[in-house]
Amino acid sequence: MIPADLLRQSRVDSVAYSLREDVGDGDITARLIPADKTGRGRVITRESAVLAGRDWVEEVFRQVDPAVTLTWFASDGDRISADSVVFQFEGAARSLLTAERAALNWLQTLSGTATACAEYADRVAHTDVRLLDTRKTLPGLRLAQKYAVTCGGCFNHRLGLWDAFLIKENHIAACGSIAAAVTEARSIAPGRPVEVETENLDELDQALNAGADIIMLDEFTLSDMKHAVAITAGKARLEASGGINADTLVPIAATGVDYISIGALTKDLKAIDLSMRLD
C-alpha cells in the first residue's frame, strides 16, 4: 500500500514537472485565442481500457487553471468501452488547450498500465495467486505506475530499496551466506519484510532455515516450484519470478505459489488511445 501523503506529493511534483517540460514559459499558440473565450468538450477513449489516473488529470487542470470544471463518467479501476466519453470539461479555452497534452499523457499512460495488469489478472482470477509489480517502472513514474497496477487488480511489491529487503546473489556473496544476510537484515531494520532470492532447491532450504519471510523462486522449473511449495508448507511465502509472460502465467499459478512478480506489468507499456474534442 502506497502511503497517501507520499502518493499525493509525488503526484503534485510529477505533474508540475510534466507541465514545465510542455508549457515552459508559456503556451504561445494558446495566445491566439481571446483570453475571455470559454470552451467545453470531452475526452473519448478509442479503445477498451481500465481507467487509471483521474487524480493526475485533476492535478494538471488545478495547476493550469483551478477554475476549469471536470465531470467524470468513470472511476479509476472501471472498465471502459471503446468510443465512450471518459470526462467532460469546461473553462477558459486557453487553459483547456494548454492542459490538454499533459492531462492526456498521464491518463493514457496510467490507464495503459492498469489495462495490462487487468489482462494478466484475468488469466489467474480462478486461483489464489497475487500478481506483483517490480521496480522496472518508467523513470520518474514509480509511484504513479504502482498506483495504476492496483487499479488493474494486481499488487505492489516493495516501492523501492527503502521499504523492504530483497536479498539477491550479490548481497549473499558479500555477506558470506544466506543465513548471515538474513541475520544482518533483522538487526538493521527489525520488522521490515525480508525476502531472499533463490536459484535452486538447496538455496530454498537455506532461506527457510534462515527464517526468510518471502522466498523468491528465480526461474525455477514448474516441477521444482511444485516441490518448493510442498517442502515450504506455509513456513514462508513463495514468489515465482523470472521471464514470466502471458503464456507461462497460468501453469505457474497452478503450482501453488503465493505470488508471481512480472516486470512487464509496468515496463512493457502501451498507452491507451485517447482523444480530446472541443464542442
Q: Total strand count, please?
A: 12
**Percent of residues in helical segments?**
40-55%
What is the averaged pLDDT score?
96
For the record, what CATH class of the largest domain applies? Alpha Beta
Strand content range: 15-25%
The CATH superfamily name of the largest domain is Aldolase class I
**Any idea what the shape is?**
elongated
Q: Largest sheet at a glance?
A: 6 strands, parallel
Number of domains: 2
Quickly give the CATH architecture of the largest domain: Alpha-Beta Barrel
What letter string, H or E per element, gives the SSE order? HEEHEEEHEHEHHEHEHEHEHE
Q: Which strand order does the major sheet show?
A: 6-11-10-9-8-7
**Helix/strand/pairing category:** alpha/beta
The number of helical elements comes to: 10
State the separation between the terminal residues, measured CA to CA: 40 Å
Unreliable stretches (pLDDT < 50, length at least 5) are: none
